[in-house]
Amino acid sequence: MIKTKMIIAALCCFALFSCGEGSSDNTSTEAVVKDNPIPVFNADSAYSYVQKQVDFGPRVPNTMAHDMCGAYIANELERFGAIVTEQPLMVTAYNGTTLNGKNIIGSINPDAKTRIILAAHWDTRHVSDQDEDASVHNQPVMGANDGGSGVGVLLEVARAINSFSTKPNIGVDIIFFDVEDYGRPAFEEDQSGDSGYCLGSKYWAANPHEEGYQAYYGILLDMVGAKNPTFLREGVSMYFAPRIVKKVWKTAERKGFGSMFLKQNGPQLTDDHLYVNEIAKIPMIDIIDLDPTGQHTFFEHWHTQDDTMENIDKKSLEAVGVTLLQVLYNE
User: Fold this and answer.
1) Residue 325 region, left (φ>0) first, then alpha (ψ -120 to 50), else beta?
2) What is the value of pTM for the model shown?
């Protein structure tokens, strides 16, 4: 996925650790929220969707594994009753390589005017530039967590909604962004210029799949499947959409996942949500596993050969999926 995750100084540094209502956790005067019934989120099913992606191999653009996985994702969305739009894109990577990508959009309740975006990237990294073993730096990442986990959760969300007797009151657009993680490797000496991450979301934000497309807000999932995750309130999310952060984090706490969704602000990240906010002008937040100690940015196996299935936890997938379903059905 993106993930060179870079702190962006250009985006109002003061927002890093405070931003409006999102910085307050005083709930003493707030009304008690009564959650609506939601579909059952099957963690085993979500895990199997992650496994299926990994079975294709690294989903690097311009490879057969990438093409096969893209077709699988689109077919699953269609099987769950979504109206599927495939948005092809041809973009130029940091090194001049032409990448053939595809954003995949599954629309649920397409006639609803009020819409919410759920998003994740589905491609995987072409290099293992964070691996301690330099001999594998040029090998692609399997991407069980960084790529696979967000897709797995959202496919299960689509399945759960389709199987439930009641649909959300709003429309839901599940967007799988492509070419997120083909950024400049850390081992390259020249780090000048654009890092090359998030090319699919940049393209979609400037060229949405429907002319004049609007959404109430969006939620991005990135690296949500590791064991014992800590989802901090990421800085770009707090700058553009503190109200949505508050809504999601409070929902997670009510559902019993407060140990994962921490009341702690994190760094600003260059991820797909940045361009949806800046270009499409749709407020979008990022649920992403971050190190609360600040010693590292991401999970232990980020951009290494160890981003594999044995490091995926069904409890983490369930926490995120249940929270998303509750947020949707409460609207």
Assistant:
1) alpha
2) 0.91
